[in-house]
UniProtKB/TrEMBL annotation:
Annotated source species: Pomatorhinus ruficollis
Compartment(s) where it occurs, according to its Swiss-Prot or TrEMBL record: Endoplasmic reticulum membrane; Golgi apparatus, cis-Golgi network membrane
A GO-annotated cellular component: endoplasmic reticulum membrane
Gene3D superfamilies: 1.20.5.110
Protein name: Golgi SNAP receptor complex member 2
Pfam families (alphabetical): V-SNARE_C (PF12352)
Annotated PANTHER family: GOLGI SNAP RECEPTOR COMPLEX MEMBER 2, VESICLE TRANSPORT V-SNARE PROTEIN VTI1-RELATED
GO BP: any one term: protein transport
TM region(s), chain numbering: 182-202
Amino acid sequence: RQVHEVQSYMGRLETSDKESVHLVENEIQARIDNIFSNLERLEILSSKEPPNKRQNAKLRVDQLKYDVQHLQTALRNFQHRRYLREQQERQREELLARTFTTNDSDTTIPIDETLQFNESLQSAHRGMDELIGSGTNILQGLRDQRVTLKGTHKKILDVANMLGLSNTVMRLIEKRAFQDKFLMLGGMAVTCLIMFLVVQYLT
């Protein structure tokens, strides 16, 4: 229920005005922190379940933790995009508020080429900031997922040893963990390639 409430608040972010968006962000962060606190208690409670229910309880807690980590990453992405928009608006207002003095009649400035070059640099700079921010959040999410998967894998192995699962099931679990590792590495490689292409063509 708390996860669904956070998801509904996330939908309000895009429609919130400048005055209320900070309040919505703070409310979402507070609810996410509360969910993480509850998940810690749930982990302790799930370890006290009877052996035949313990595995299912731990898997459900891990799935909830995975969902909340995704919500945390989405909130960070939104905050980063909002910061970039506000920074651009401040720069635009500063440029419009700036006063200029007239030059002497014999003084000329090649402003068109300089302005175009400056706009290209700013566009490339903004693109790099967005890519770096998105890449950082993606890598953080991947690291969080890896920690969750490693913890889940360890817990499943403990439960499997206790319940005496077959070797076939154990091999399937290890194969899935191995595949997830390659998926993570592939995602990191694609992110790095996109950042390289943006730098190559925008600058």
